[in-house]
Design goal:
Elements: H1 2-28, H2 34-41, H3 45-51, H4 55-78, H5 84-101, H6 103-106, H7 114-123, H8 125-135, H9 138-153, H10 158-173
Helix pairs in contact: 1-2, 2-3, 4-5, 4-8, 5-10, 7-9, 8-9
Length: 175
């Protein structure tokens, strides 16, 4: 019983840190310091590092959490679409919209944060799993992550993005 209770407390503390980190990412971008996150969470840096051994680990944990939510949203919204090419186009557009609706992620997709954001997106197993599910090809999955990051950093109109995805992305992934 004690280990269950300790595990639940540890999980709650981890969830609280991720919530505060999201707020800090939204306010300061992805490169906010661990000291700032610890202060905002009301814990010591040692406590923060007990849960996340580096800033990158914390960033990737946040990305994994959000990627899971985005993946669920994509699955739900694609439920009635049977056409493979339409599913691919809509999946990319939904992913773009979902990332743009998250203030913490939006703060990362600036020209100044492009390097960090690209590196995190490409190193995230969660992001890779979502795109690989649609492509069954890890190389194509990495490419689509790069395309999505590019569209997030240098956005266009919704119509223009849809056209680009339909013309260049969907045919490549539909093979």
């Amino acid at each position: 019983m004690t280990s269950e209770w300790t595990g639940a407390r540890r999980s709650a503390a981890r969830d609280r840190i991720l919530q505060v980190a999201a707020e800090q990412f939204a306010e300061h971008g992805g490169d906010v310091s661990m000291s700032d996150i610890a202060a905002a969470a009301g814990c010591s840096r040692a406590t923060l590092y007990r849960h996340f051994d580096s800033r990158t680990a914390l960033q990737l944990a946040y990305i994994a959490q959000v990627a899971g939510e985005i993946s669920s949203t994509i699955e739900t919204r694609l439920a009635g679409i049977d056409d493979r090419t339409e599913r691919i186009t809509e999946a990319v557009l939904i992913a773009l919209a979902e990332v743009r609706s998250d203030p913490a992620l939006t703060a990362w997709f600036t020209s100044a944060g492009a390097g960090l954001t690209s590196e995190l997106a490409l190193s995230s197993d969660s992001v890779g799993a979502i795109t690989t599910a649609f492509t069954q090809d890890p190389i194509a999955a990495a490419w689509i992550v790069r395309v999505i990051v590019s569209l997030l950093i240098v956005p266009s109109s919704e119509d223009e993005e849809r056209t680009m995805i339909q013309r260049f992305v969907t045919p490549t992934l539909s093979r």
